Amino acid sequence: MELSRLSRKEIINLHDGARLGYVGDSDLVIDGTSGSIQSIIIFPKGLGLQFGKSSRELIIPWESVKKIGEEVLIVDIAPERHSRKYGCRE
Prior knowledge:
about 40% strand, single chain, SH3 type barrels, four-stranded mixed beta sheet, globular, 2 helices, 10 strands, four-stranded antiparallel beta sheet
């Protein structure tokens, strides 16, 4: 799939139906050797920026992606994992 098509997809959490954002508004961690996506980093809007970086982020491992549809990318992030990853960065 082309990156431009992937970037337009909205990320939805299968576990609770939450809308997490769009792939195009996120950062992708890509393996330099294989070129495969390792994770998606979402920076929630409305939290403000500190020195050019968001103070909170949600890291979604690529293994959590369950389905890629025409308009959405479905991920499965359980609440306990969601709250651990979605917090202040160290």
